[in-house]
């Protein structure tokens, strides 16, 4: 099944598509009007590790500090996988980065924000990305804009390889968790290690992807060192 990065509780499984996938040349007569409507009253904006890294670079703060200040941290109810959700302001219910009706981090906005009003799915293991039109409650109509142009102008095409890799690793780690039965203490340790490796352990002055790949390799070694057997094969090597 295709997976995506938008709105449901577990990272990598947040939003199912509606309608048929768009082709690169499909008309997309939408342009943001800057009204801020899509920035208000939402509690479903999950962040990937790359989203958090981009915000950290923009704010010149360590990723974990950004998460503490602007996100809710939790584990997915179906997978036990650690997740970050953008925390709305208590006074307005709006995005914490909505300032005077404008996005204060527009050049580093999360994928879900850049996609609006699209949904995105990533089919694995192929890594095929599809886009779907969702109902837009705001915006302006424009002529002669295609999906390909929208994705390029929004910075989505440029980051697509990283988003595919994030989906692959999330799926791998959720599969590892599902195939084993760690003790509560082990699970707490595992979630903390996953959270640190995938979301926080980045130098914001260095490129994201090489650090991410290094973190994933280190995380695999840590998980293997726990020697937690698979549910169906107790004596099998437990590398993810």
UniProtKB/TrEMBL annotation:
Ranges for region Disordered: 1-24
Biased composition (Basic and acidic residues): 7-16
InterPro entries per the UniProt record, alphabetical: Puta_zinc/iron-chelating_dom
Position of the signal peptide: none
Domain of life: Bacteria
UniProt-listed PANTHER family: PUTATIVE-RELATED, YKGJ FAMILY CYSTEINE CLUSTER PROTEIN
Protein name stated in the entry: YkgJ family cysteine cluster protein
Organism: Candidatus Faecivivens stercoravium
